[in-house]
Design goal:
It comes from Kwoniella shandongensis. Keywords: Ion transport, Transport. With about 240 residues, the chain is of the alpha+beta class. It has helices at about 10-110, 115-130, 145-160, 195-215, 235-240; strands spanning about 135-140, 165-170, 180-185, 190-195. β1 (about 135-140), α3 (about 145-160) and β2 form a beta-alpha-beta unit.
Length: about 240
């Protein structure tokens, strides 16, 4: 049954209460919607900031880690190089001591009984290498008589072997405190053959140095190729058995 006419005060109040309740409900739903959206945006922004900071921290840590690694490698390399240099200096000192001792022993050989034979062989080698009609032999002053005698024998052997003759002149210009031996020259000194004991020892030292290092210090791990040389005693190199 419908009703016409104006609403009384109670009905108006009831309607107003309904309208207020509806508006309040709408407002609460809208507020919840805004809150949910704000929470979502906050969570997204928070995750973004955390991610950025985390990447920045990781990058900073990685940079410091690499710096520490580089520093450690530099320190390790420096320590290794320092150790290697000490080893090389020690090895070089040891080799120098050996060479010094060999020089003393070679110098002592010039006063031995086989020295004259060695000088004869040295002179013969000079004559055969120069093949010159005239040769000058430099020697120690104290070896003058010995060198002349050895040169006479060497000349005979040279003539028998080559069919040539060579005139020998003598020059006592080598110092008496040298190891001994002779230096042959021709064409006014422009061509020379150094057959002194000191020079022969230097040649032998250079040739035997790789073998000496191998025998004394072992094989070089960084070396892939080796030159095999014949092992000969110093006596043979110096010209006598």
């Amino acid at each position: 049954m419908s009703r016409s006419g104006a609403l009384d005060d109670n009905e108006i109040q009831t309607e107003m209460n309904k309208m207020v309740a509806f508006i309040s409900q709408e407002a609460r739903e809208k507020a919840r919607e805004i809150q949910v959206k704000a929470d979502e945006e906050f969570a997204i922004e928070k995750a973004k900031i955390v991610r950025q900071e985390s990447l920045a921290i990781d990058a900073q840590y990685e940079k410091k880690r690499k710096q520490a690694e580089v520093g450690w490698k530099i320190s390790q390399s420096t320590a290794i190089n320092t150790s290697r240099l000490k080893i090389l200096r020690s090895r070089n000192d040891h080799l120098e001591a050996i060479f010094d001792e060999s020089s003393k022993q070679v110098k002592a050989l010039s006063s031995g009984g086989s020295y004259e034979e060695a000088v004869e062989n040295f002179i013969l080698e000079i004559l055969l290498m120069l093949l010159a009609p005239g040769v000058t032999l430099a020697h120690r002053p104290k070896d003058t008589d010995l060198v002349k005698k050895a040169a006479e024998a060497a000349q005979k052997r040279y003539t028998e072997m080559s069919g040539r003759e060579s005139k020998i002149e003598f020059d006592s210009s080598l110092p008496d405190d040298s190891a001994g031996g002779v230096i042959g020259s021709t064409l006014g000194g422009r061509i020379k053959v150094d057959n002194t004991l000191g020079e022969r020892l230097k040649i032998l030292q250079d040739k035997m140095l790789p073998e000496l290092r191998h025998d004394l210090f072992g094989a070089n791990e960084n070396r892939k190729f080796y030159t095999v040389s014949n092992r000969r005693t110093i006596n043979v190199k110096l010209g006598w058995e």
